[in-house]
């Protein structure tokens, strides 16, 4: 089974980059004294390539929906909590998700007036193309909270395989979120090498305060050991904004790693650091800088 090792994390007052791919954990803290509310987002999931077992063994209780009691009807429960930054990927069975083999089209209304729906089916095409998918969603009675999910699995006779998911939602507090990820296994047309490509995008916004974030991750591999990994991140919390970009490239012999991150305030103060590492045949080099620009435009940039 192919797993998706992507991850990142965001808590109430700090932005923390996990120690991924051998990186040292780093943490940026932000001043939250001007905002008594706290914005916290959370989600975790994983999808292997192995075909799931039929049936829908729901474990929705972990979502703690605000508008649907846990003991309501058998329909999918409301997911009214935004995803957490830098999540890992958990097993789909832990989410109670199954890409059903049969066609399903059902909906219902819970005791509290909230509604839900679930649809599942399969499409067939040329060259053994097969796509199985499941759509589900729901909303509270007054429409203040809503969530949607789409899961899919694609394959054909060439060995192409794809797994993907897209989620979105909003809650009564005004928080909104959207995320998607995809994993593809295919054979390159020119080199005939097997390739694996994984990608994810996530974003969330706080309704009651000026806060939000966006992330984009990708990983690419081929049968000869060529590897590329990277991420772009952006976030904002009241008067502060921050950005981060990093990448890794391995061609079977040499390795290049780089990072560029910076932050700024509405007053014009900016700071950040960037560096690059190169390794080949047991020899390596590292260069970079940290810098700071005051609100008056004065720049300090000592080399590291």
TrEMBL record:
Residues 81-95 have a biased composition (Basic and acidic residues). Keywords: Chloroplast, Plastid, Transit peptide. GO terms for cellular component: chloroplast stroma; starch grain. GO terms for molecular function: starch binding. Residues 69-80 have a biased composition (Polar residues). Residues 49-96 are annotated as: Disordered. It comes from the Eukaryota. GO terms for biological process: regulation of starch metabolic process; starch metabolic process. InterPro entries: Alpha-glucan_binding_chloro. It is found in: Plastid, Chloroplast stroma. PANTHER family: INACTIVE PURPLE ACID PHOSPHATASE-LIKE PROTEIN, PROTEIN EARLY STARVATION 1, CHLOROPLASTIC. Belongs to the ESV1 family. This is Uncharacterized protein.
